[in-house]
Amino acid sequence: MKLLLAVAFTLVSASSCASTEIIMDRGVEANPVIAQKAQDSGIVFLSNADQYQLIAGGRATKSEGLASVMTASKSQEQSELLWQGTNGTFVLSISDLTVSQQRAQALASSSSSYNQIAYNPRTGGIGVITGQIIVSYTDGFDSEFLEASYGIQLLQDFAHLKTAFYTVNVGQDIFLITDYLNKGGLVIKAEVEVMENFAVPN
């Protein structure tokens, strides 16, 4: 009986340590600011069969060393920095911007130096919005017709997978365009691409 209890205690301890390592490896710590700013945005969307919420005032900046991290933090000095973390090689931050201010910045330039971020309530993780729309379609689909109809840019069309990747132009809202694509009847499904798990380089 003592042996059985010792084994059970060891398994519980091991599983507890394992879950801690997974959270630490993801580089995203649970924080009430994250959930609150996601709720504040009011923008909910599906990606990879998971529901995400846009994080108001959130951004991801690719870090190419310490200089980039410092630049990312410095660029937010004008607005209050509420939270900062990492996911792979991205520096994630949430500042005190409203959704309309964030959208205005995102619409202002297609060559933005940052990506928007989203919260996954199921996993508690933060994903980086790549700026691409993934479209699944059936036979007879015309990827160039869709490009012309919605004024978006076709990046790649994988006909054998019946999947095409698009990006929006300056001044277009990726969430509205994706919603229009889903309601337009020309595709099976359109989703905003979100990358939640990144490998951390050694």
How do you describe this structure in short?
By secondary structure, the protein is α+β, with helices and mostly antiparallel strands.
Structure description:
This protein is an alpha+beta fold. The protein folds into two domains: 32-129; 132-195, 2-Layer Sandwich (Alpha-Beta Plaits). It is 36% helix and 30% strand. The protein has six helices and ten strands. It has helices at residues 2-26, 32-41, 66-74, 99-108, 143-150, 174-183; strands spanning 44-47, 50-54, 58-62, 81-87, 90-95, 117-120, 125-136, 153-158, 163-167, 189-195. Strands 1, 2, 6, 7, 8, 9 and 10 form a seven-stranded antiparallel sheet that branches. A three-stranded antiparallel sheet has the order 3-5-4, sandwiched between helices. Strand 6 (117-120) and strand 7 form a beta hairpin. It is elongated and about 50 Å long.
Mean pLDDT: 80
Helix-strand topology string: HHEEEHEEHEEHEEHE
Number of domains: 2
Structural class: alpha+beta
- Rg (C-alpha, Å): 20 Å
- Which of globular, elongated, flat, extended, rod-shaped describes the shape? elongated
Catalogue the unreliable spans: 3-29, 65-69
Features:
202 residues; alpha+beta; Alpha-Beta Plaits; seven-stranded antiparallel β-sheet; three-stranded antiparallel β-sheet; 6 helices; 10 strands; 30% strand; elongated; disordered N terminus
Task: Give the helices and strands, then pairings.
Elements: H1 2-26, H2 32-41, E1 44-47, E2 50-54, E3 58-62, H3 66-74, E4 81-87, E5 90-95, H4 99-108, E6 117-120, E7 125-136, H5 143-150, E8 153-158, E9 163-167, H6 174-183, E10 189-195
Antiparallel strand pairs: 1-2, 2-6, 3-5, 4-5, 6-7, 7-9, 7-10, 8-9
